[in-house]
Amino acid sequence: MIEKPIPSRELRPRRRGRWVARLLSGLLLAGVALTGGVAYRLSRPFVTPGSGIQNQVREVYRAAVNPRDAFPGKTRLYVLVLGIDANHTNQGIMYTKNARSDTILVASLDLDTKRVGLLSIPRDARVELAYGRGRDKINAAHAYGGIPLAKATVEEFLGVEIDHYIVIKMYGTRNFVDALGGVTLDVEKDMDYDDNWGNLHIHLKEGRQHLDGEQAVGYVRFRHDDEGDFGRMRRQQQLVRAVAQQIMTPGALLKLDRIVDAAMENIVTDLSRAQLLALANLFRDIPAGQIHTGSLTGYSLQEQGVWYLDPSESKKQALVGWLLRGEEWYRNGLVSIRVHNTSGVNGAAALVRDILSDQGYHAYLGNTPRRAADTETRIVDVTGHKEVARQIARLFPDARVEAPGEDERPAPGGPDILVYVGRASARAFTASL
To answer: Domains of the chain, with CATH numbers?
Structure first.
């Protein structure tokens, strides 16, 4: 078995025709509608013609007036969101039967605080499939057993009970963004990639711009850089936030019918229409600061010629605790801290590591630099966690926060923060024992 830190270029897609799906485009779509109309206007896209239509209209009306009634006894919902991959015949004809899930996301919706947590699961993550189906990539669960196996596998992997699911149909994201009139995004880099077999053509320039549906899908599907799937998941989450902001603008209200129709036509879900409307009502005014996102990380490994991602158990627990269960303490566990002893006091680094671990951080020891002892403690913010670095600095009597030097740049699998324990702090801590 070969192991190495990720992100890695070796985690390549095994199939073509990939696409991206996201939750909020299905949930927040009706929030705009609720700010500008009444339940009667909404009844058209949210009820099904045929017998019982009056009951459906009454259910929709109740969802608009008392949305919490749509989820009796629930204060939090866990929703599994899947985007299904596409297969091709030898003639290049696309089909989705028995396809793997290209996008896997779990949304935590707090119905009381209106907090949303979105956890992305890498499709290459190696897990134990439910019902004794063996160990495989998590995206194989849908191919082997459809929604039931995918749902059960995610539940066992994360330790949460999924309440509902949403599957976005092929081209659903593209169609929804087009119905919205496009979306404004800060494209983080120049992107050029052509895949004629997968019908994927990405040609974007760096900078803030308004993208149509095809361009937005290309932006979030791009994975041909050092970050691989992790950059792709981060850009997917960026699109979620942009869509959430765009859909709350007055201009989107003018496209109400088209937006709602596009959403309803491009999703498959066990949420009733009234429940979708209730969620839209509950979360229609959600500020951007209430939407929290994160992605599982780990190490890539190769077995029998196949590349997998071996998830980090500590990071998984931290993400589930913070993003899905809403327990803020777990957020510290997402920050990795390497502690170095530059104080000349034996045991100082181990003591500081234990203090940081007690605070919930993922702290570990680094090699002691070969140089004279420092009086002051240095906190180096390697990956841009400025507020966390300042919080850590407050634990020391003499710490200062610094930017990383040339030999302290971010690296795959590397620490987020470096702590160089100085002599004054070491003596203060050891004296308190």
So the answer is: 2-328 (3.40.630.190), 335-431 (3.30.70.2390)
Sheet containing strand 2-5, strands side by side: 2-5, 298-303, 306-311
pLDDT score for 252: 67
Among 48-52, 121-125, 264-268, the range scoring the smallest mean pLDDT is 48-52
Closest CA to 186 of 117, 223, 250, 241: 241
Sign of the dihedral through C-alpha 183, 184, 187, 193:
positive
> Strand, coil or helix: what is 2?
strand
DSSP 3-state assignment of 339?
Answer: strand
Q: DSSP letter string over 409-422?
A: ---TT--SEEEEE-
Task: Read off the pLDDT of residues 41-82 as tens digits, 9 standing for 90 and up.
Answer: 444 455 555 556 566 666 666 666 688 888 999 999 999 998
What whole-number distance in Å separates Cα of residue 386 and Cα of residue 27?
A: 32
Please write down the HEC assignment for all residues of 282-324: HCCCCCHHHEEEEECCEEEEEECCEEEEEECHHHHHHHHHHHH
Confirm if 387 and 365 have CB atoms less than 8 A apart.
no
Could you give the residue ranges of the DSSP H alpha helices within 10-72?
24-27, 29-36, 39-46, 53-65
Please give the mean pLDDT across all residues of the chain.
78
Structure tokens at 262: 């596009």
Q: Check residue 212 and report its DSSP letter.
A: -
Tokens of 394: 């407050």
- DSSP conformational letter for 244: H
Whether the predicted pLDDT of 238 surpasses 60: yes
- Decide if 213 contacts 181 (C-beta within 8 A): no
Q: Per-residue pLDDT for 10 more than 60?
A: no
| Tokens 């270029």 -> residue | 9
Q: Which residue has the tokens 């500020």?
A: 287
Which whole-number Å values give the CA distances from 46 to 38, 171, 278, in the listed order?
A: 13, 21, 11
pLDDT at 222: 79
**pLDDT at residue number 144:** 92
Cα-based torsion angle of the residue sequence 256, 260, 234, 3 in order, rounded to the nearest 10 degrees: -170
Most confident of 54-58, 131-135, 262-266: 131-135
Give the range among 60-64, 150-154, 337-341, 403-407 with minimum mean pLDDT: 60-64
Counting every residue written for the chain, the total comes to 433
* Rg of the chain taking only CA atoms, in angstroms: 24
**Percent over 70 (pLDDT), the chain:** 74
